[in-house]
Specification:
single chain; 259 residues; four-stranded mixed beta sheet; two-stranded antiparallel sheet; 56% helix; 15% strand; globular
């Protein structure tokens, strides 16, 4: 489920910042599902789907470009694939080939952390635009996660422009939400890859096993919290992650995946 999908005649291929990028048509499944619920009296469902597709495309592309730029910093070429589960930054040396293994634990932590860092920068930029257009910012909660809350002034541009307000709000929410989730120490998410490298550095012999045990525990906890807040998709996702990590731990394997 988390591997690179096969190519199709309908893939969108382009280069950006010198990186080959491929968008699988199934990438747009989640934006359609989530965007259909954004319609309202001032915006129909079609516009909501379009806005969500733009937000997902830009946000996930920027996230994966963060990984790709970190790979480039260490002399490893890479490519980006966007698909139905999000995105992958894949080293051109063949995934976890010899060049990727030559990265030190510290360098691999940088590569894993570069994606979420890029995503948080997008959220910060959207927040600054909110403020520049006449909004005040306070802290609110979306389920168990902290989120900025924007209060619009009556004469602000955003007060009378529902699509623009929702577009900026989605950039903030999606980039904070997805990247916070991605930093949980659950393998193969970025946080799981970071925790694995830290465990290996502290204990070269038992680090992988210890990181897998932490990954299972956090995934189960995240699934329970998600179901408590009636988020079935996230609950099922982390439940699957817990099961997958348990299977890998039982087999004594060391899964190798792209970022």
């Amino acid at each position: 489920m988390l591997s690179e999908p096969g190519t199709t005649p309908y893939d969108l291929n382009f280069d950006f910042l010198g990186f080959p990028c491929r968008v699988h048509p199934a990438f747009f499944v989640l934006p359609i599902l989530f965007g259909a619920g954004l319609g309202g009296p001032e915006m129909n469902a079609g516009v909501g789907i379009l806005l969500m597709a733009v937000v997902f495309f830009v946000s996930i592309l920027v996230h994966e470009l963060g990984h790709a730029l970190a790979f480039r910093k260490y002399g490893i070429p890479s490519r980006v694939v966007l698909y139905w589960m999000g995105g992958l930054a894949i080293p051109e040396s063949g995934g976890w080939g010899s060049r990727t293994r030559s990265l030190t634990p510290e360098q691999q932590v940088v590569v894993s952390g570069a994606g979420p860092a890029a995503g948080f920068l997008v959220a910060l930029l959207a927040t600054l635009i909110f403020v520049a257009l006449g909004s005040t910012v306070s802290l609110d909660w979306m389920g168990p996660m902290p989120m900025p809350k924007f209060t619009l002034k009556a004469d602000s541009l955003l007060a009378n422009n529902e699509p623009l307000r929702i577009l900026l709000l989605m950039f903030v929410i999606v980039n904070i939400f997805l990247n916070l989730l991605n930093l949980l120490p659950v393998y193969p998410l970025d946080g799981g890859q970071i925790s694995r490298q830290l465990f290996i550095k502290a204990d070269p012999w038992g680090g992988i096993r210890n990181s897998m045990m932490l990954s299972i525990g956090v995934a189960v906890f995240a699934a329970v919290i998600a179901f408590k807040f009636n988020d079935r998709f996230i609950g099922i996702f982390f439940g699957f992650m817990a099961w997958q990590n348990y299977q890998t731990l039982q087999q004594g394997g060391n899964p190798r995946r792209p970022w």
